[in-house]
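Consortium newsletter contribution from the modelling node. Members have asked for a concrete example of what our holo predictions look like. Here is one, prepared for the flavin-adenine dinucleotide complex that several groups have been discussing at recent meetings.
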Amino acid sequence: MRKHVIVVGGGLAGLAASIYLARAGKSVTIFERRRYLGGRAITHLRRGFRFNLGPHALYRGGGASMVFRELGVPIRGGVPRLAGTALFHDERYRLPVTPWSILATSLLSFSAKREAAALLLRMGRMDAKQAADLTADEWLDRNVVNERVRDFVRGLIRLSTYCCDTRSLSAAFAIRQLQIARSKVTYVDEGWQKLVDSLHSLAVASGVNFVSSNRVVAVVHDGEVKGVELGGLELEDRNDTQSVALPDAIPEYEPGAKIPAADVLLAVEPSSAAEMLRAGGDDSLAKEWSSLQPVEATCLDVALSSLPRPKDTFALGIDKPLYFSVHSAAAQLTPKGGALIHVMKYRAQRAAMHDLEIDQGNDRRAEVAADERELEELLELMQPGWRDVLVHRRFLPAMTVSNALVTPKTKRPSPVTPIRGLYLAGDWVGDEGLLSDAALLSARAAARAILG
Ligand SMILES: Cc1cc2nc3c(=O)[nH]c(=O)nc-3n(C[C@H](O)[C@H](O)[C@H](O)COP(=O)(O)OP(=O)(O)OC[C@H]3O[C@@H](n4cnc5c(N)ncnc54)[C@H](O)[C@@H]3O)c2cc1C
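And here is the predicted structure:
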């Protein structure tokens, strides 16, 4: 039994951990509740265009890139140009991100340019840990005099962390993420599904077993893991056209079946991990995991047969939490001549929304409709006439970009839990990185802990 490991969740974290484990001689089975692997890293193929779930950029200097290299996952794609538009009070400015664009932009006054240039230069050498007790806003208040520069850096923090709530976000994580972003990002050819497919192939080659369309409903333990319990077979829409679907679930497992294992790795979202523990009779850890605040975004993904303004490929909101990027300008995602664009609004945390005095009785549907209009207007500003060349569009009102907002006070759980034989991986686990970097670094740490 000690040799057998059950991994729950077939997203990037579960797949990566399973490869480390199988290569070290463990017998590994991944249970995935969906018919497809990949979790939030899947890519949908629509009329020849590859749609990631909202904008996905791989940080070249981050933990995910390191784990992919270590596992032998090839990363093909392009690096987007470090240039674009800054949107401020509905006007367009040159985005000040390089020495030349800082000099040339009219977004900043002369003294603001000096302060922004000095700060960006200093950023690379900063010790992020020294800001561990501060929120991003507190750190900005102490370190930046010019208000416009503060707004601009807040925009960069949103861009690199996907988090809008700089009043709560940990300054140490924000600084570290800005430092990682200096090594640029890759937009992956054929979408992040390509990374999922490569991980799947490597896992198969290492002998990992897969059981799809099967939800794990409970972790069976008495302070020491004994195994997991399965729910019923979950059947989904079969017409979905993704790159890779697993074969149908192996019918050897009946609903309610208990699968013995001494080591179980939960590579799922915290609410799902909490449910599995509660069903197994444990509430204290479940409570801790359920209290984590997610970071969300609203996304509009569009495919166009051509790009009305080929040069306008990137824009970042400075006073509003908005993002626009033509991902196909750097990566292969479309048929010839086509364009794939991601437009996004970083969503305020629920608590922060109350602070902003958004009417709590407000109809959520009206809010969603307003968000969609705002994203369409941004698209119109950057690519006028986009509706005339529209091939396919998809609106995602509330995506969970990260399962845990990191504040100076929130500590993400460790990959090793107090229950013997129970481990965690995901973007809400461990104390390193954000987004997929956190997911893959915690997967690696969990695998190492299992291997001892
Ligand atoms: C809009 C958006 C934009 C993003 N942009 C970026 C970016 O630019 N850069 C970046 O690094 N990251 C980005 N991310 C984050 C990145 O997608 C995630 O960090 C990463 O995919 C998480 O992988 P994971 O395996 O930890 O979790 P998930 O992908 O959530 O996988 C969890 C898996 O567990 C399965 N599961 C859950 N419960 C059970 C159960 N009980 N039994 C069986 N299976 C179960 C789920 O079906 C799922 O497949 C973005 C995410 C979103 C949504």
